Amino acid sequence: MSIAGVNHLALVCRDMAETTRFYTEVLGMPLIKTVQLPDGGQHFFFDCGGGSSLAFFWWADGPPAAPGIASVKAFPLEARTAVGSMNHIAFSVPEDELETWRQRLVEAGVETFPMVVNHDDSEMGVARKNHEGVFVRSVYFTDPNGIMMELAAFTRPFTPADVRHAPGSARTPAEV
Fold first, then answer.
1. Are 155 and 137 in contact (CB under 8 A)?
2. What is the pLDDT of residue 109?
3. Which of 119, 154, 147, 146 is CA-nearest to residue 133?
4. Which bin fits 82, alpha (ψ -120 to 50), beta or left (φ > 0)?
5. Mean of the pLDDT values across residues 23-41?
6. Intervals of CATH 3.10.180.10 along the chain
7. Domain 1-62 is of which CATH architecture?
8. What sign has the CA pseudo-torsion 102, 137, 79, 85?
9. C-alpha–C-alpha distance, residues 15 and 144, integer Å
10. What are 34's strand-pairing partners?
């Protein structure tokens, strides 16, 4: 048995019509399935490529958003979220399209991080300019629900040398 990839990621939106417009018109993700739920809610699926879908639930009386708990409050300064939350979702795009995507988002009125971000292994984790140590380049933005999104392009394949940190733990050694 093996995992073959992500089937879908299910999120919650504040307004299904607004969310559908954003994902179909701004991001170009076709709406592929709609479900009317017995409790009055809805569950819609959008094709995000590679056989994967992004899905949204909506209820008219759903609880409000909780930035800083269930979603990022303010990237990059307040990016921590609670255990069990979804911090952000990253979609793969070709590296040479990153700036075009950023401009498309800006033209659609979507607030984006002001530049393509170059992630590297430096102490800060980012570089002002692209260089051979950059492993992924990204454009960050939020959708109409305040969900943080990333358009990301890996710049090189990963090797065993890229796995060099032990996993952290909140447990004290006596509890392990």
1. yes
2. 96
3. 119
4. beta
5. 96
6. 1-62, 65-158
7. Roll (3.10)
8. positive
9. 9
10. 44
**pLDDT tens-digit series, residues 95-152:** 999 999 999 999 999 999 999 999 999 988 999 999 999 999 999 999 999 999 999 9
Place of tokens 């990237």: 75
What's domain 65-158's superfamily in CATH? 2,3-Dihydroxybiphenyl 1,2-Dioxygenase, domain 1 (3.10.180.10)
Beta-bridge partners for 67: 71
Tokens of 44: 């819609």
DSSP-assigned letter for residue 22: I
Q: Residue 80: what pLDDT? A: 84
Contact 164, 121 (CB under 8 A): no
Q: Which residues contact 103 (CB under 8 A, 6 or more apart)?
A: none
The answer, yes or no, to whether the previous bond of 160 is cis (omega within 30 of 0) is no
Residue type present at position 143: D
The H-or-E segment that residue 104 falls in is helix 98-107
